Amino acid sequence: MSTQKPSKTAGWNWFLQRVTGVGLVVLLGFHFAVEHFIVGAANVTAGNTVERITNGLIQGDHVLGQITINMPAFLYQATAISLLGFSVFHGMYGVYNVLMEQDTLRAYEKPIKYFFIVFSAALFVQGILIFLAFFEPFWQVYDPR
Q1: Which residues cross the membrane (predicted)?
Q2: What are φ and ψ of residue 62, in 5° steps?
């Protein structure tokens, strides 16, 4: 049993872990509905991904017929970025907590914490860069050909 007193941010971290967990259920539900049921995983292309991210236009053939949803682009973009941020925080903080429950790793708490902070930031930045690669205005500035 550890006798170390909790950090000043422990309460906020506990709260954010729960909030991101609930957020992930909602956002993953939206992701699966759009990508796997409306558009269909087999029909996801770079072209229709750019259309969804840039214009918020979601189209697909469904068992119930043709479905078209025209949501505001910023809402689709905010949903994608929120899913990325919630996933990174929830996953990295969860792994960090599991590691900190191991008494043998308690001596390395600070280096492990800073590693996870840097690694999480790097994952989030990488995800944003991938997101920008599908954003149409990006292609107006950068043409790889």
Answers
A1: 12-34, 74-93, 114-135
A2: -125, 165
Q: Which H or E element spans position 84?
A: helix 73-100
Distance from first CA to last CA of the chain, Å, rounded?
60
**Cβ atoms within 10 Å, residue 22:** 10
pTM for the model: 0.81
pLDDT digits (tens, 9 = 90+) for 84-133: 999 999 999 999 999 988 889 988 999 999 999 999 999 999 999 988 88
The residue type of 122 is A
In whole angstroms, give the CA distance from residue 84 to residue 27: 10
Reported as a single tens digit per residue, the pLDDT across 135-144 is 766 556 555 5
The CATH class of the 14-137 domain is: mainly alpha
Average pLDDT, the chain: 85
d(C-alpha 88, C-alpha 45), whole Å: 25
Q: Where are the domains of the chain?
A: 14-137
Distance CA(99)–CA(17), nearest Å, equals 16
